[in-house]
Amino acid sequence: MKDLIEKINAEFETFKTESDSLIEKGIKAAGARSRKSTLELEKLLKEFRKVSVEESKK
Fold this sequence. Notes:
Strand content: under 5%
Function: Might have a role analogous to that of eukaryotic histone proteins.
Order of helices and strands: HH
Number of strands: 0
Oligomer: single chain
Family: Belongs to the histone H1/H5 family. HCT subfamily.
GO molecular function: DNA binding; structural constituent of chromatin
Number of helices: 2
Protein name: Histone H1-like protein Hc1
């Protein structure tokens, strides 16, 4: 689970960096990268939910 949380944090940092580039600097490609990052975050967060539920049942 620790590894999963590290992946989530790393992906969130990527999203934050890219979305800041889009908003502050107007870099359009950063918008695409930040949207891609949100899709990856969605997958990771679903996995976290699954693992978390399994851990709580123990």
